[in-house]
């Protein structure tokens, strides 16, 4: 399917690995020029070069912490005007509900709520002026079904989801759509490190830890970054112009709910 976005320009935050990289690759396959970002320069440059070679699109790679004001300023300066914004960053650490203090919440809100909001505020007005734009926020299945040890994530991402629900309806008349993708368990470094933690804690192998988690998913496997990226690229396509303010769950059926 031709996604109809060849020649558009996208900022994909936190995209040297994992789900962000999947989104960058799928957009590049559709002919979209990219601004990619991550904190660590080496893997970011490698990912950018691989995409340039494979898809023959223009890629600017900016090493910066997107959750800081300075990092965002650096990325925004390099990005200039973009048509597509994919918001992403690392997730907050796990823990116990009673242990988190104000500073822990502020850090989680900064990373997973206020950072995407700042980027939306910086980039959406010019999309509206030009009458076309796409915003996709990577959140989590925890928005629909809270993960007890990820209370900081449950809280910050729910806050972003409320903001997106209201804002998406206000920007839609200008041809700009905004939606969220909610990942369940995907085979990325983050999933591998969670499996390693369970393996250590329970004295089982990493493979057994993964098999136990896969058994909890109706699809009986982890999602892939390619599947995730393809969904993101579709939401950014010409065909998705009537999808506004939605929360698309990609979880292999993991959340057991009728709606
Ligand atoms: P990942 O494989 O660990 O990749 C994270 C990517 O983001 C890397 O490129 C990393 O590069 C970059 N990054 C992290 N923090 C950053 C920051 N502050 N500024 C700029 N770049 C940053 O993670 P993932 O699995 O793709 O997860 C992406 C998001 O989805 C996370 O918020 C995660 O909590 C959420 N999520 C993931 C899953 C899953 O199963 N994978 C499920 C639900 C939700 P550097 O480290 O070099 O910065």
From TrEMBL:
SUPFAM superfamilies recorded for this chain? NAD(P)-binding Rossmann-fold domains
Q: Which family does it belong to?
A: Belongs to the short-chain dehydrogenases/reductases (SDR) family.
What protein does this entry describe?
Answer: 3-oxoacyl-[acyl-carrier protein] reductase
The organism of origin for this protein: Litoreibacter albidus
Q: What is the lineage of its organism?
A: Bacteria, Pseudomonadati, Pseudomonadota, Alphaproteobacteria, Rhodobacterales
């Amino acid at each position: 399917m031709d996604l109809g976005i060849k020649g558009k320009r996208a900022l994909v935050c936190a995209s040297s690995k994992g789900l962000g990289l999947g989104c960058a690759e799928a957009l590049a396959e559709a002919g979209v020029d990219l601004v990619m970002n991550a904190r660590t320069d080496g893997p970011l440059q490698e990912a950018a070069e691989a995409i340039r070679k494979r898809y023959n699109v223009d890629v600017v790679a900016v090493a910066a912490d997107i959750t800081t004001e300075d990092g965002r300023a650096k990325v925004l300066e390099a990005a200039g005007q973009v048509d597509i914004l994919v918001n992403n960053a690392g997730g907050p650490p796990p823990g116990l509900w009673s242990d988190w203090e104000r500073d822990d919440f502020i850090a989680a809100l900064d990373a997973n709520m206020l950072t995407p909001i700042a980027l939306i505020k910086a980039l959406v007005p010019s999309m509206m002026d030009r009458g076309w734009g796409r915003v996709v926020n990577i959140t989590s299945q925890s928005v629909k079904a809270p993960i007890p040890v990820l209370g900081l994530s449950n809280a910050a991402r729910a806050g972003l989801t409320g903001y997106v629900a209201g804002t998406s309806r206000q920007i839609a008349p200008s041809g700009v759509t905004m939606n969220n993708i909610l990942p369940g368990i995907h085979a990325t470094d983050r999933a591998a490190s969670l499996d390693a933690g369970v393996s250590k804690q329970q004295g089982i192998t990493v493979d057994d830890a993964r098999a136990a988690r896969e058994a909890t998913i109706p699809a009986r496997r982890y999602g892939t970054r390619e599947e995730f990226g393809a969904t993101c690229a579709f939401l950014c396509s010409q065909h998705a112009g009537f999808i506004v303010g939605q929360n698309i769950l990609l979880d292999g059926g993991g959340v057991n709910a009728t709606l």
